[in-house]
Specification:
The complex is a heterodimer of chains A (113) and B (112). Chain A is an all-beta fold and 113 residues long. Chain A has no helices and twelve strands. Helices cover 0% and strands 51% of the residues of chain A. In chain B, 0% of the residues lie in helices and 54% in strands. The chains are: A mainly beta (113), B mainly beta (112). At the A-B interface, strand 6, strand 10 and strand 11 of A face strand 4, strand 5 and strand 10 of B.
């Protein structure tokens, strides 16, 4: 079965500092990869996605992620965070042949002023 | 705003009852997905419909059912509710059967 691991359940970081949220997946075949953000009391918003092509993917709000096939990772990064980035971040994969997404357990990013 | 709408936003009910959650996909999207988000299980896929037909099933209980209507809106029916059904229920939609999914704001269900 497909699994997604987000090792860090909580990540505190100071405002304007860089951040990396880690995501690893278990699959020996190519998958489609996604990062979603959930702000307090809101739904999931798509940050970025990797379907094919360049391994460095740029998303909204200054976030980017790098697909690493050999390490089966898709880590999310931002060079300088803002208070408004405080939210829960979910990594998700869609294996080939599947229609649904498999989500990680989420990482709560807290930006400290 | 993703363009996916869900009603109601909040629902409080008692054990043993039945509720219906409603989802309207983005304009032009044919596929609707239902997910459940709970503290102990995380985000889990329940079921998918594409253009009115069931396409994929996940960890959906037999007490739960869904359908997609000709106007493409979808309803998730939860019956014989238990305390453990308390969760946030999300609907997502996509253009194709396996396209990028856009999520609605969710319905928060509390079973007392």
């Amino acid at each position: 079965a497909q699994s997604v691991t987000q090792l860090d359940s909580q990540v505190p970081v100071f405002e304007e500092a860089p951040v990396e949220l880690r995501c690893n997946y278990s699959s020996s075949v190519s998958v489609y990869l996604f990062w979603y953000v959930q702000y307090p009391n809101q739904g999931l918003q798509l940050l970025l996605k990797y379907l094919s092509g360049s391994t460095l993917v740029k998303g909204i709000n200054g976030f980017e992620a790098e697909f690493n096939k050999s390490q089966t990772s898709f880590h999310l990064r931002k060079p300088s965070v803002h208070i408004s980035d405080t939210a829960e971040y979910f990594c998700a994969v869609r294996p080939p042949g599947a229609n649904n997404l498999f989500f990680g357990t989420g990482t709560r990013l807290t930006v400290i002023p | 705003d993703s363009g996916v709408t869900q009603t109601p936003k909040h629902l409080i009910t008692a054990t043993g009852q039945r509720v219906t959650l409603r989802c309207s996909p983005r304009s032009g999207d044919l596929s609707v997905y239902w997910y459940q988000q709970s503290l102990d299980q995380g985000l889990q896929f329940l079921i998918q419909y594409y253009n009115g037909e069931e396409r994929a099933k996940g960890n959906i209980l037999e007490r739960f059912s869904a359908q997609q209507f000709p106007d493409l809106h979808s309803e998730l029916n939860l019956s014989s509710l238990e305390l453990g059904d308390s969760a946030l229920y999300f609907c997502a939609s996509s253009v194709e059967q396996s396209g990028t999914q856009y999520f609605g704001p969710g319905t928060r269900l509390l079973v007392l």
